[in-house]
């Protein structure tokens, strides 16, 4: 949601709240004045008639109508605001590089996009406007008292009114840390909870379920403690403000009524109306109860959403890198051209991770000056120690990880100048594991090529050595993913190859696609990959000597740098899995 829409919505909400609150205040004021006037008439033996009667009837109706209008419009505005914020967060998520993605980050995202957005919208729609209205309506009440009853009493009461917002402002400063800590604890719990669900099978196989449960209970207890602190603060403030202000304000009003009435400045009826009207000056106090739970929580959520969105490199791949121009329009498709298809010069890249204990972030550099030139149709294999940065290098080529220095050219176009989706369009990837979405096999394949026909899908499955799936009773409509047929690791990898075939990109990136499969599956996958790689530029990250030797060129990634090695040296030196 663009900021101006948010500002407009808040502005409209506030104006509406102020108007409706004024209508409600006038309604109640009319009732109290009518009650006072009636009191005078009763004293003189007259029945209740004329404007006091109209006031007594119309006042509550007006007040009730205004309050009702205030209530009925909220749900729609809440939904609009929540939808807009979630859309903004989703865009930020999609623009976030792989460098940030971790279980902690995912948990934070879920917590911010659900509970955080709800709290923010609730705060923005049901709190900000009514709070401003509540703060301004006493001025209206004072004016009514001044005009209708007595200016001296009005001025005395006016002196007490500014104390309430001042006190609320003071409490806000004192309790801001409490609500920020509560939101942080809630985010941490969401992250751990999600982490445990994602790693459920691992936890079970390691008999670590109970320990993980204890940790979750510990985090939940932490959240409970912070909520209790917030509520305790709320109760304390309610007690202090109610005791001091309600009593103080009513006492002042009663003293004024008695003193002004005794000296004949106001009638007994006006004195009664003055005391009744002074209760309307306590309207801001009613809001203090909401202040901590909705107000403080909403403000913390607002800061959190802003930090989340500001923190994500929304927009083009390299947005935020100083001095880099980003093309607004798609660059031309890569045709056969002279020069390298992939070129990296002096590329440095790494990861920032949220530090658990402090506010700061830790940066670890993984690639420390990569130079690489790959020509059209060339097949390059990259080997190296585990954790050396091979997957990171592929992520840089795909534009998922943005280098901190150096330049990257993909399919003949520098990423600095390409639009956001360019590298993803040019590369088909088969990674170590494949994610299958819940849905049909066809749905899972069309993610790569939405316009593909059923025949295209079947042909891709055949070419990926996965023809057996088309023979299932429901064929392409067979449900796979979490709630459907569970495919084996090898079959899932071949679904990824079928996706790559359908995508038909000029560059093929293979990140150890056979590392988690058995020998029979490996043969089948390598065979399908050989067909897929023909005529394409291929980078394959591997630990297998056979795959490495089959490449045109072999490079080793070690200590953040790429060095050429000969296939014979690789086999003999025995890099750990080079068998
Ligand atoms: N999203 C991430 N956030 C933080 N650090 C990361 C992230 N991804 C990878 N790393 C770290 O970067 C380093 C390089 O990881 P990378 O996966 O690129 O290595 P690799 O050579 O592909 O390893 P392997 O052969 O085991 O797959 C590792 O130390 C890893 O912990």
The gist of it:
By secondary structure, this protein is an alpha/beta fold.
Helix coverage percent? 55-70%
Gyration radius, rounded: 34 Å
Oligomer description? single chain
For the sheet with most strands, the description reads: 6 strands, mixed
* CATH architecture field of the largest domain: Up-down Bundle
The number of domains is 2
Report the end-to-end length measured between terminal Cα atoms.
54 Å
Beta-strand residue fraction: 5-15%
Give unreliable regions as ranges.
44-48, 314-336, 573-579
Strand order of the largest sheet: 6-9-10-3-11-12
Bound compounds: adenosine-5'-triphosphate
Q: Name the shape in a single word.
A: elongated
Question: Can you count the beta strands?
Answer: 12
Instruction: Assign the structural class, choosing from mainly alpha, mainly beta, alpha/beta, alpha+beta, or little secondary structure.
Output: alpha/beta
The number of helical runs is 19
What is the CATH topology descriptor of the largest domain? ABC transporter transmembrane region fold
Q: Whole-number average pLDDT?
A: 77
CATH superfamily of the largest domain: ABC transporter type 1, transmembrane domain
CATH class assignment of the largest domain: Mainly Alpha
Organism: Rarobacter faecitabidus
Subcellular location: Cell membrane
InterPro entries: AAA+_ATPase (IPR003593), ABC1_TM_dom (IPR011527), ABC1_TM_sf (IPR036640), ABC_transporter-like_ATP-bd (IPR003439), ABC_transporter-like_CS (IPR017871), P-loop_NTPase (IPR027417), Type_1_exporter (IPR039421)
Keywords: ATP-binding, Membrane, Nucleotide-binding, Transmembrane, Transmembrane helix
């Amino acid at each position: 949601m663009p900021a101006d829409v948010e500002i407009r919505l808040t502005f409209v909400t506030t104006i509406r709240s102020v108007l409706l609150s004024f209508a409600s205040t006038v309604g109640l004021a009319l009732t109290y004045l009518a009650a006072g006037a009636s009191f005078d008439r009763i004293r003189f033996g007259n029945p209740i008639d004329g404007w006091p009667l109209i006031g007594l009837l119309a006042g509550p109706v007006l007040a009730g109508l205004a309050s009702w209008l205030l209530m009925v419009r909220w749900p729609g505005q809440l939904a609009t605001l929540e939808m807009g914020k979630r859309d903004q967060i989703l865009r930020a998520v999609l623009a976030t590089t792989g460098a940030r993605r971790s279980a902690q980050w995912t948990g934070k995202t879920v917590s911010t996009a659900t509970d955080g957005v709800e709290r923010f919208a609730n705060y923005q729609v049901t709190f900000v406007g009514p709070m401003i209205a509540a703060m301004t309506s006493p001025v209206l009440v004072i004016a009514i008292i001044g005009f209708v009853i007595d200016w001296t009493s009005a001025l005395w009461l006016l002196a007490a009114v500014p104390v309430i917002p001042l006190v609320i402002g003071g409490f806000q400063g004192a309790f801001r840390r409490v609500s920020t800590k509560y939101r942080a604890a809630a985010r941490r719990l969401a992250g751990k909870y999600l982490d445990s669900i994602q790693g459920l099978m691992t936890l079970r196989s390691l008999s670590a379920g109970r320990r993980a449960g204890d940790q979750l209970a510990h985090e939940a207890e932490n959240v409970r403690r912070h909520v209790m602190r917030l509520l305790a603060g709320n109760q304390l403030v309610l007690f202090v403000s109610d005791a001091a202000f309600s009593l103080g304000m009513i006492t002042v009003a009663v003293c004024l009524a008695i003193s002004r009435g005794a000296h004949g400045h106001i009638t007994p009826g006006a004195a009664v109306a003055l005391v009744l009207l002074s209760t309307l000056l306590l309207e801001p106090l009613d809001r203090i109860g909401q202040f901590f739970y909705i107000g403080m929580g909403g403000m913390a959520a607002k800061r959190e959403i802003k930090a989340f969105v500001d923190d994500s490199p929304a927009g083009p791949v390299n947005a935020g890198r100083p001095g880099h121009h980003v093309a607004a329009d798609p660059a031309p498709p890569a045709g056969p051209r002279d020069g390298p298809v992939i070129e990296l010069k002096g590329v440095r890249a790494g990861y920032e991770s949220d530090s658990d204990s402090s506010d700061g972030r830790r940066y670890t550099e993984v690639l420390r000056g990569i130079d690489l030139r790959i020509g059209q149709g060339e097949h390059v294999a990259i080997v190296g120690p585990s954790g050396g940065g091979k997957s990171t290098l592929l992520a840089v080529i795909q534009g998922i990880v943005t280098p901190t220095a150096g330049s990257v050219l993909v399919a003949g176009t520098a990423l600095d100048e390409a639009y956001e989706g360019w590298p993803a369009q040019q590369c088909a990837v088969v990674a170590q594991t494949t994610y299958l979405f819940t849905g049909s096999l066809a749905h899972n394949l069309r993610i790569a090529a939405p316009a593909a026909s059923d025949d295209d899908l079947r042909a891709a499955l055949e070419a990926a050595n996965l023809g057996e799936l088309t023979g299932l009773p429901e064929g392409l409509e067979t449900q796979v993913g979490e709630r459907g047929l569970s495919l084996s690791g090898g079959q899932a990898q071949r679904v990824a190859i079928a996706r790559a075939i359908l995508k038909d990109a000029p560059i093929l990136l293979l990140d150890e696609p056979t590392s988690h499969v058995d020998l029979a599956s490996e043969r089948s996958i390598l065979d399908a990959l050989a067909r897929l790689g023909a005529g394409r530029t291929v980078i394959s990250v591997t630990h297998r000597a056979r795959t490495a030797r089959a490449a045109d060129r072999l490079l080793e990634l070690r200590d953040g740098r790429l060095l050429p090695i000969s296939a014979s040296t690789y086999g003999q030196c025995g890099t750990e899995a080079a068998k």
